[in-house]
From TrEMBL:
This is DUF221-domain-containing protein. The keyword Plastid does not apply. Residues 599-671 form the 10TM putative phosphate transporter extracellular tail domain. Residues 235-508 form the CSC1/OSCA1-like 7TM region domain. Keywords: Membrane, Transmembrane, Transmembrane helix. It comes from the Eukaryota. The chain crosses the membrane at residues 237-261, 281-310, 331-356, 376-405, 443-469, 489-509, 521-541. Residues 24-224 form the CSC1/OSCA1-like cytosolic domain.
Length: 685
């Protein structure tokens, strides 16, 4: 933990990190109505060092966010329809040339088209064959043929133009929208934000709390900013109940997987399962060996999706906080279902007959047979080490989606550009728990089955190589937690220590000599004492390092420049900058200098005033991006958009067709110019 705190403090103290807008910005929730004024908030927070730089009151924008989402969907439909029609027209023109058996040169064709102002899509696609769609206020009914039938292109253009105008009016009359009970406060100094996040901000109970620091504009869950304190608590209670229900009912399929792992032994005692021996030996081996592991992996892969949805429903306001919530709940699932349920179910299938024959010895029999579950975890860790590491390195799914799905579904320049220039996201909330659970399993069986340490060591070596390469060259991290998921994983690893100590204590207390008397009571008592000592160690670690992990110390700047010797037990902190590993310094420097997602203050606008506005107001007006063609249809569409009087823009910049009429791109979308510094591809190569 000392090493992590050094790196964490070096990160928070670095000039590059401090130059970010998020470094000095906090989110204040549950603000009383009397305080919902920029003047009042300024007087409250301007008491902190350096004072306040900007204040953004979050407002109830009504249906404006939904309209912005609708605009995005209509833009996608419009681009896809335009591209499809242009491609259809090119095919029609190609067939016409072949049918006429002429040798008309491309120069003559282009000249003819250029000289004719009537060369639009209408020449090749009759009015009756133009694509149509159903419009209506209720999308579900519209898609079921209940809406009015309209021309797709014209309807999308008119609707997008209308929404663009409404959003422009909303920007100009922003103060007319009612403020909600949250606001973003940006200070002139980073230390002020950390002090404010730890302060009691209001004399009214439950007001202006909780307060979040290090808020990034791209990580905000805007729909959760308007919740009151009691609404959040009610949602948290509902989500907690749903999570507990999942834990209980998810045990049924997981227990079935555990029974499959020891099915061979069970069939020797339960005669009605003898038909299993009629199966081919290869198939029987797959059922009892590989199938349980594969089924368990599939079951665990479905959980993060559900847990992330529950975290959002609970009212968490940022995606990085959602990641940390998912890390905690997903780890509980991993321990309960991947370890405890499988361990118990595997043992029960082995000893169920013995317990029936001698019920009074159930405890002793169970304690003696629990270690037999190590057979499953031997193969589980080995398979995970080989399969996960190879999957991470080979990227089979990404490879297939890039070459196969790209050809099938990337029918617009924008989709093709996203396929080429968007990296896979690595969410720490779902990455850490499986590996932390592997640590738990390894610790529990480290004494009972020491060979587990060898297998775990090899598996973690493969994990390290695969993920180190992935983190530097393959994946992107949209939800930057600043390393806060690491200490949580360290504390979660203590679960393995506790379970190991509890299991050993149980084995000692249940151990009997040849006379049926307990023979290891002293050892069991010592294990209980060791459990208490372990609790004390974890408590000391948490109380010592948690404040330094989450917040910047007041003396951070002074301490980093300190040249004199530091007392021995604090000497580790003096090396805050110098001890940061070279790969970390290189990666952080490359990432933060170029990926200025909020160091340029905000990703869409170069004015500070728009940094923490709702994306519906902050984003620039989108531009329809279609490919240039040799028939001049796309150019005519661009010109028509300029002269039609509609509030919509169309561009062909950086997109076109190749000789096989496939879309090709040689640049970014025209409305992405201001966001180039967020381009993951360009920042790494």
């Amino acid at each position: 933990m000392k090493g992590f705190v050094r790196k964490r403090q070096a990160l928070l103290s670095s000039p590059i990190y401090q130059s970010r807008a998020s470094a000095a910005t906090i989110l204040v929730t549950t603000i009383p109505e009397a305080y919902m004024s920029e003047d009042v908030l300024f007087r409250i927070f301007n008491q902190f060092p350096g004072g306040v730089r900007y204040i953004w009151l979050n407002r109830n924008l009504g249906d404006l966010p939904e309209k912005a989402e609708k605009r995005t969907k209509l833009m996608e439909i419009l681009e896809a329809t335009e591209c499809k029609l242009i491609k259809t027209a090119m095919k029609i023109e190609t067939k016409r040339r072949k049918k006429l058996h002429t040798e008309m040169s491309s120069e003559i064709i282009e000249e003819t088209i250029t000289n004719s102002e009537q060369q639009t899509i209408h020449k090749y696609i009759p009015e009756k064959k133009r694509p149509t769609m159903r419009s209506g206020s209720i999308p579900v009914f519209s898609s079921l043929c209940f809406g009015k039938k309209v021309d797709t292109i014209e309807y999308c253009k008119e609707t997008v133009s209308k929404i663009n105008t409404e959003i422009e009016i909303a920007k100009a009359t922003l103060n007319n929208y009612t403020p909600i009970n949250s606001a973003f406060i940006q200070f002139n100094k980073q230390i002020a934000a950390h002090m404010a996040a730890q302060s009691v901000l209001a004399s009214i109970p439950l007001a202006m709390t909780p307060c979040y620091n290090d808020i990034k504009p791209t990580n905000i869950v805007w729909s959760n900013l308007k919740l009151t304190y009691y609404q959040k608590k009610f949602r948290e209670l509902i989500v907690l109940s749903a999570t507990m229900a999942l834990i209980v009912f998810w045990a049924i399929p997981v227990a079935f997987v555990g029974i499959l792992s020891n099915l061979t032994y069970l069939t020797t005692k339960l005669t009605f399962l003898q038909f299993i021996y009629n199966l081919p030996s290869v198939l029987l081996g797959l059922i009892t060996g590989l199938l349980p592991t594969v089924l368990l992996a599939i079951l665990m892969a479905l959980l993060p999706i559900v847990l992330r949805l529950l975290a959002k429903i609970s009212g968490i306001p940022t995606t990085d906080a959602i990641d940390r919530y998912v890390q905690g709940s997903y780890f509980i699932f991993q321990v309960v279902h991947v370890f405890l349920v499988v361990t118990i179910s595997s043992s029960i299938s082995s000893v169920i007959v013995l317990i029936i024959q001698n019920p009074t010895s159930a405890g002793t029999i169970l304690a003696a047979n629990i270690p037999t579950a190590s057979n499953f975890f031997f193969s589980f860790l080995a398979l995970q080490g080989l399969s996960v590491a190879s999957e991470v390195l080979l990227q089979i799914v990404v490879l297939i989606s890039f070459y196969l799905l790209g050809k099938l579904f990337d029918n617009t320049p924008r989709k093709k550009w996203k396929r080429y220039f968007t990296l896979n996201n690595l969410d720490w909330g779902t990455v850490y728990p499986p590996f932390t659970n592997f640590v738990v399993i390894s610790l529990v069986y480290s004494i009972i089955a020491p060979l587990m340490l060898v297998i775990a060591g090899v598996a973690f070596g493969l994990f390290y190589i695969a993920y180190l390469y992935n983190m530097f060259y393959v994946s992107d991290f949209p939800n930057d937690t600043g390393g806060l998921t690491f200490p949580r994983a360290i504390y979660q690893s203590f679960t393995g220590v506790y379970l190991m100590e509890i299991m050993l204590a149980a084995l000692f207390f249940m151990a009997q000599d040849e006379h049926g008397l307990q023979s290891a009571i002293v050892q069991g008592v010592l294990m209980c004492v060791l459990i208490i000592i372990t609790l004390g160690v974890q408590f000391m670690m948490s109380s010592s390092f948690d404040p330094l992990t989450h917040y910047l110390p007041v003396d951070a700047e002074e301490f980093s420049q300190l040249k004199i010797s530091v007392p021995g037990k604090f000497a580790w902190a003096k090396m805050a900058i110098s001890t940061v590993s070279r790969p970390l310094r290189s990666a952080y420097r490359t990432d933060t200098v170029n990926n200025m997602d909020d160091a340029v203050i905000e990703p869409y606008d170069n004015t500070m005033e728009n940094a923490y506005m709702h994306p519906a107001l902050r984003e620039p007006q989108p531009i329809v991006w279609i490919p240039e063609d040799n028939l001049g249809i796309a150019s005519a569409e661009v010109q028509n958009a300029r002269t039609s009087g509609l509030n919509i823009a169309i561009s062909t910049e950086g997109a076109g067709f190749d000789q096989n009429m496939n879309i090709k791109i040689n640049g970014s979308p025209p409305d992405y110019i201001e966001m180039l510094e967020k381009n993951t591809f360009s920042r790494r190569f």
